[in-house]
Amino acid sequence: MPGVGADATAPQTVLVVDDSRAQRRLLHTYLRKMGHRVLEAQSGEVALAICQFEQPDLIVSDWVMPGMDGLELCRRFREMREDRYGYFILLTSKDEKHEVAAGLDAGADDFLTKPVNAAELRARVRAGQRILAMERTLTATLQEMRQLHAVIDRDLVEAQKLQQSLVRDRHRSFAGVDVSLLLRPAGRIGGDLVGLFEVNEDQIGVYALDVSGHGIASALMTAQLAAQFAGSIPGRNIAIGRDARKRPVMRTPSETAARLNDMVLNEMGTEQYLTLVLALVETATGRVVLTQAGHPHPLIQRADGCVETVGSGGLPVGLLPGARFTDVEVWLRPGDRLFFGSDGISECMTPDGDMLEEQGLIEILGRHRFARGEGFLTRLLEDLRAHTGGAEFSDDVSGVLLDFSAP
Question: Which of 56, 75, 112, 233 is the most exposed place for a label (fewest CB within 10 A)?
């Protein structure tokens, strides 16, 4: 098969179909002089039999023939040629518009009026050669794109494994608090990230973030951000500092968000931004200090089932220089739980385009009030899938769940 840049003047294999031997001979002579390889068939049935073994580039067929006429031959030819296009020219004395329309509906590409003129035949065949050359070029290009896509897809599978490895522990138990993490990209890779880190014996940090956009650029940025929250060592983890006695302590989430805002704008050199919920959790007391930066509102479900909304929205991180963020303090009591998730949950849509929204998430929390940890997250995913009617999620789905049990 000719590749990209196929020659529109290259010799073709042409099948001439006509019940008149004299007409076949005349066309054969014209086409041979043009440099083409010519095959002959005296009927549509014989032509189809030849096409089982040969792959003619062009067919020049009479319209009116005994048995199978040119229209039926064209239809049958189109049905059997799926891998490669063949150019079909009908010979006819018909010039009424409805007859031409019938030929086009059957799959004919062009028409020649009998008696055939050699110059017109040459022009029609050359037009077919140009079409075939473009088709071969597009086919070769498509094949190259498929091969490239396969390579990219294999790379994305590996990138997906690496991104999922950023969330090593999906469930951790601390004295008084159980933390469960949910991360489900919409595609191979995504722009959402959730995580937790230990600060000291009394404090842990948890976060959920959502980088703007989708795909590779967003995933690369999440990897950079994951490195900022890695480990428990001050200086390596952007959220951890030291107190007066040099012990590691977590900075206020608002301070960390401001530092992250400066870093995204001044060091990462990207047009992307992110939404964030970052929380300092005191495991023994149930005190939680959190910052909401453009992320959907965190929700507290009390032990009695009532749900409270936390936060006031805030600016996304990396959007405006000098942005300031606000801390909110809440207290969790035994049996309470705190959940914050990405907009892939609140904006999850039905087939009719209705979003789940915050109220829908509150209803899911109430429906699975007694499910804890990973059990609740599993039920959450099941309900979201039911909400979409079984369709794939259009956006990344992520969330952090804290179940508090300390006295």
Answer: 233
